[in-house]
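Hi, here's the filled form for the chain we discussed.

Project: internal
Contact: R.S.
Residues: 467
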Amino acid sequence: MLDFMPLILFFTVCLVLMLGYPVALALAGTALMFTGLGMLLQNMGVPVHFESRMLGAMPNRLYGIMTNSTLLAVPLFVLMGVLLEKSKIAETLLDAMALLFGTLRGGLGISVILVGMLMAASTGIVGATVVTMGLLSLPTMLKRGYSPSLATGTICATGTLGQIIPPSIALVLLGDVLSNAYQRAQLAMGVWSPKTVSVGDLFVGALIPGLLLVVAYIVYLTITAWVKPETAPAADRQSLMDELGHRGSVWPLLIKGLIPPVLLIVAVLGSILGGFATPTEASAVGAMGAFLLALVNRRLNLAMLREVVRTTAQVTSMVFLILIGAALFSLVFRAYGGEELVTGLFEAMPGGVVGATLIVMLVIFLLGFILDFIEITFVVVPIVGPVLLMMGLDPIWLGIMIAVNLQTSFLTPPFGFALFYLRGVTPQSVPTSAIYRGVIPFILIQLAMLVALALFPGLATWLPSIL
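And the returned structure, exactly as it came back:
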């Protein structure tokens, strides 16, 4: 029993999180409880493996977190996304796209997917994208005769693109954790000049899978609209213009709504892909660009700025507090010999690296029902990442697989986070069962993407290799 203390520690922290305690406090509190338990058992002469001296590394860990330049991208990307949301730039963008595509069958749904893709690229936060798109587009889609299940499924699936489409906060955090795991794996294998994997590598690796998912969503919606036209009817352009309160040509609204946010995202991603800026520097470009857009559109005032800064500070504080709790948890897990235990379990699994990868992906998928991506990134990935990377997996491929996997688990009934977010802003006339039915085709699309990534790793690794 005492040999499995690391696993008991892991399942205990999952149980505490399920009881609803704050993530950072659950991680740090559980770790401290097991630290005390380990010391107590050793003082009682119980033969338990616990190296308390490892906790001496905690001050260095804290200093490393607070001086990590990569993590500086988190508050800046959050600031960029919140500014775009609060300044109603996303609302203008959706109006423009609805006028452009709304006269086609399924056109309004296609507009939602494209705007959601741009929102995902600008906010990087699943909850923010789902709630924003739900508030902006769901009433219009239902009013235009869209099937409630198709409308809600489209919004949920589009919202989860924030997990995979760069610049995603999930990829920023995952990139930092995987970079540490990759270096530890190489040092454990005797490589004393280890290679690195950066957040920029993950951004580049996520581009093709993310865009393929968007294309697959649009293809599914188009086919559904033609096979069952009553579920996604075309709208009359004049009635759409009257509803949106727009007169005259569509193009001025389209240029005003579409060009600025697209240019902002191109500037952010282009500076990274072109090698002109690191993700941290690009996040500063994005934050300043969002500020200027809000200013030019005359939607920037003191009250909104105060709310934006407060929201950014809250999200950033939450992330860094979780980072500190996760660092303590990781040290205690290793002090109990957790790394050696996990390595032994994986090596004993049938199927070698394939079997180990399947088990890890299944565990992450199931944990996605009860834990947010931040907890999984900071709790699970540091435990399993070094072991899988020592078995020869590509770190970029592993990172993209984890991101798409979590994106899928956020959609899966009955516990998917995206379903809860949308349920909170959906009218009572739309039953929860309609939301569940609506996401099933999109779950199948994302599972197909996972299979495609497993069979063709080049989808994630080819672009980073040539850039």
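Let me know if anything looks off before we file it.
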